[in-house]
Amino acid sequence: MTDQKDPGQAPVVEMRGITIEFPGVKALDGVDLTIRPGEVHALMGENGAGKSTLIKILTGVYQPGAGAIRVAGEDVRFGSTADSQAAGISTVYQEVNLCPNLSVAENIMLGHEVRRGPFVDWSATRRAATKHLARLGLDLDPASILDSHSLAVQQLCAIARAMVVRPRVLILDEPTSSLDKAEVAELFRVVRGLRDEGVAILFVSHFLDQVYEISDRMTILRNGRLVGEHRTAELSRMDLVSAMVGRSGEILADVGERAARVAAAEHDRAEPVLSAQGLGRPGSAAPFDLDLFEGEIVGMAGLLGSGRTELARLLFGADKPSEGALAVRGDTRAPSPLVSLRRGVVYSSEDRKKEGIIGDLTVRENIALAIQAGRGALRKVPAKELDAVVAKYIEALQIHPANPDALVRNLSGGNQQKVLLARWLATGPKVLILDEPTRGIDVGAKAEIQRLVTELADQGLSVLFISSELEEVLRLSERVVVLRDRHVAGVIHNGPDVTVETVLETIAERAAS
Amino acid sequence: MNAPNNVVANLRRLTRHHLFWPVAALVALVLACGAYSPGFLDVTVADSHLFGQPVDILRQSVTPLLLGLGMCLVIATGGIDLSVGAVMAISLAVSLTFIDANGPGTATALTALVIGLITALVIGTFNGFLVTVLGIQPFIATMILMVAGRGVAMLVTKGQITTTASPAFKSIGSGFVLGVPTPVVIGAVVLAIVAVLVRRTALGMLVESIGINREASRLAGVRATGLIWTVYAICGLLAGLAGIVYGAPTMAADANNIGLMKELDAIMVVVLGGTKLDGGKFSLAGVVVGSLLLTTIERAVIIFHIPSQVTPLFKALVLIVVCLAASERLRRAVTGLLPVRRLQEAS
Amino acid sequence: MNALLTAVPQWGARLRDPRYLPVTGTLVALLLILVVGQLRYTEKRSFLSMKLFSNLLVDNSYLLVLAVGMTFVIITGGIDLSVGAVVALVGLTTAKLLIAGVPLWAVLAIGVLVGSAFGTLIGVMVQYFDVQPFIASLAAMFLARGLCNVVSVESLGIKHEGFAELASWKLKFGEGRESWSINLSMLVAFAVLAVAFVILHHTRFGRTVYGLGAGDGGTAVALMGLRAKSTRVWVYVISGTCAGIAGILFTLYTKSGFNLTGIGMELDAIAAVVIGGALLTGGGGFVLGSAAGVLVYGLLQVVIAREGLQSWWTKVLIGVVLLAFVLLQRALGTRRARRRPVPVTPTPQVAAPA
């Protein structure tokens, strides 16, 4: 399909040496991106790789600190999103950024509507909308309300809107994240049509199958740096995943070859602490089985968006499972945060700020919150008891500053994470679900948290450990549950011969269907 | 660290306390009144009862205090109760109508009080039901009663201004207990009860955590529904009590005017006391200071011979200023102007 | 109004469109009251008559104007609690200025501008200082009431000749008991309604108003390159201006200004808009629906009067009806809980300083 294209064809977008810094973070460091007319170009990278920052620079939301952008051979500086649009760059965002309460025609045409004097000429506007829809091969009633259509159609309407200004470049940011298979096929039919008309398409997706299906070339970023630019046909899935995930060179404190040691040991496999059978929720995670045994660390690996968090939330009851059964030490009540808390299952969210800490409360109050919730509002934890608990965890986890009355929002990320750990550990849990507990914290704090997790498991706690860092997962866990596209793709029993590559292969495997 | 630095640091800590500015304003206002009108601060004992301007201010500050305590808790959850003024009218109307029908005895007065309070509690529970179970936005849920409530009060009084006589009931608003005005005693007792209820139990902390971060609280196992519901019920109950204390001296249930615009007073004393309208951290002590400050302002208007019609205007302006001051954008603009101070705070 | 005429034949199909379902409910309610009224109150003469509608509009033209303004605000998902107080303030201002001998045209203009000023105040607080609409408009409501007290705490009667002429001007139709008329307030109210209809349905601004109510804080509208910010300010200015006009109409109706006028009038306006099919959560609503809501409101009052119930029943009944509509919307809203995409990517975190 890509053969007829001349590789020497003049690029429509050239970004060279793009660098941008945010307070304390170098988000992009000398990144290049080249997009040619009539190609679908995939932008790949894990969380924090800098994809969205790069897109925001191309759309004029951010201005780079260094580097040059050329569009169709001319140097440009985008001071605002309007500048970028004027240069012929249109964007369709992950969440349909249209107004569901307006009609299809309005959503496509508003801002470019046909007018007669100050008034909208509705019939002409609807005709124009129909024309733009027809270009994508869509036959919709332009007067119908957007909300009455499926998400896929809404997504296509967003593309139709983006095409009204006849852009040179169309950016599709995670356009498929909430579409089903047939809907994705429909979307790709449209994308191929536009490509064949000569539009350059920048495609961002977490779904490897889709990237391989649609893209001609790809640019891979990691930690704000360019890792490589390849023709899709020439890059194996394995190489892509390796490039995206990378090898962290950090040598962390040795946490004792626990994984190997414990994997050899025999657990009492008779009775799992937690057992999920066919647990699932449409749009969140496909039904899965999982047993968790006493003193076991189970890792969960998968690319961003593979369903790790969704699965954890179902186990805890943060989202209600709509099918399947969950038993915790024989207790089969439907999970909810309070039910889980009382039967010893706790969940530390990956989104510390939104779902973890209560920023305006003190360290003491944050630690007390879960114990208190378990007891009910009227039975306040006695001050003495609480002081002892708080002092114990501040010391054990080395929370800094060691001041129980400090406001949690003033603590560093690592210390906030420790406060959350303290909150959960103080409830005396049997099962600990940790979602990205080491993200965004420094190396020292990371090692401390890893050590702590192994100690807890040695004391008999079962831990479900979710992390984007595969080394970390492998170092800690006895079994690794690998997720892909919201399915459990496989379970790997950790051992001396299991390496990061083993996990990557499972992640990169082409979906069987 | 040398001595002057220490003093500066302590002073800064003092000025940063959330009650510093309200208390300072209160003290300044009282002193100004004292200077303008000698004898302002005198308290006399006549008939073994306390009299004088400070006593009057205390007595009148009880209504905003009662309303403010309930409103403060509701605001802490991130909600609002616009119906408190109407609830005042309803519970007074219920009590007085009961007395009107059953005579002036002390037992009747007590029963009337209880019935009035139960009515208020029921209304508060209804508001809580709309907000928590049905998930209606707090201001819409309580706005329905803000106006329909006055119609209900009219229904109770059959459109009349019910006037009746019951010395026992009247004394709730105008009597004395051991020389102290009854409303002041009621205010103090309610304050103590509420303080114990929210601070000796975990109610206060859980309410704050819901108000600051509802989702994080939910994931920590906090069940918001029951707590928020309780808070609206308490707010209704206290509004009912406020209506009775406020209206008892007149012994006239004027459904149209009792508690009119008292929502404003309630919101005012809460924000004056340093509790943010967005919810989260609240301060009961702040409500006390706020209600004293509000009442002293009203009294000062009389002392300084300012036309009393100006008071509501003044209150509205204060509310607008407080709203704007709480705005992130304004704060950013101001702190941007004061880079030096930012730097000091960071260090 | 050409579009209105061509739209008529499509109405049959449109009544079942989910967009218009709430309005269909309103029309059903309206018809029900009319039919019941016709059966129950027709004695010597028909309940249904031009006179009934003429009287309804004479009594409620100010409310119609308020409801039109409120519709703009509610479509964006906001609220304006200040309109009742603004009506009172405009009434008092008009009375005071006329008594002071200011020329009539200037008085009328100042009255309307007082309303616009309050709307601007609210809009700026909401858009530029992130104050929640109900708090901002509540503050404005208290401000307006406070200003009322400063202008006068007593009722000010208006004895201005020109003003009296405006108030009593009418076109008479029919004879005797069946006679009915159109007065100035009705014409103004209809004009406001027509202008609002055209603005909302036939200009880019009007469609932006709807877009703001899509429930994403105006993100989509801003990304579409429409003027999200200024539109949000403008809806409050429109509501305030309508409150100013309504204030004048109400003064023409009562021929006096009084500081306790219009307590609870904001709820009447909100009720009319909600009964007329607007969603309090924003994104949906029609000025014509609101007009039907005003008729329902007016008819309820007529029914209450005919049944010999006291006037305070209106407040209670409106509260009940409003509650019922809020609950109905809530039920409809949960049933078709929107299938919005679940974002896969967690919000990018700026690494916290360790």
From TrEMBL, chain A:
SUPFAM superfamilies: P-loop containing nucleoside triphosphate hydrolases (SSF52540). One of its GO terms (molecular function) is ATP binding. Its main location: membrane. The keyword Transferase does not apply. Residues 13-248, 268-510 form the ABC transporter domain. It is found in: Cell membrane. InterPro entries: AAA+_ATPase (IPR003593), ABC_carbohydrate_import_ATPase (IPR050107), ABC_transporter-like_ATP-bd (IPR003439), ABC_transporter-like_CS (IPR017871), P-loop_NTPase (IPR027417). GO terms for cellular component: plasma membrane. It comes from the Bacteria. It is a peripheral membrane protein. SMART domains: AAA (SM00382). Keywords: ATP-binding, Cell membrane, Membrane, Nucleotide-binding, Repeat, Translocase, Transport. This is Sugar ABC transporter ATP-binding protein.
UniProtKB/TrEMBL annotation, chain B:
Keywords: Cell membrane, Membrane, Transmembrane, Transmembrane helix. InterPro entries: ABC_transp_permease. One of its GO terms (cellular component) is plasma membrane. Signal peptide: none annotated. This is ABC transporter permease. It is a multi-pass membrane protein. One of its GO terms (molecular function) is transmembrane transporter activity. It is found in: Cell membrane. The keyword Ligase does not apply. Its main location: membrane. The chain crosses the membrane at residues 19-37, 57-75, 82-101, 107-131, 138-156, 176-198, 219-246, 310-327.
Automatic annotation (TrEMBL), chain C:
The chain crosses the membrane at residues 20-41, 61-92, 104-128, 179-200, 233-253, 273-300, 312-332. Keywords: Cell membrane, Membrane, Transmembrane, Transmembrane helix. Pfam families: BPD_transp_2. GO terms for molecular function: transmembrane transporter activity. GO terms for cellular component: plasma membrane. It is found in: Cell membrane. It is a multi-pass membrane protein. InterPro entries: ABC_transp_permease. This is Sugar ABC transporter permease YjfF. It comes from Antribacter soli.
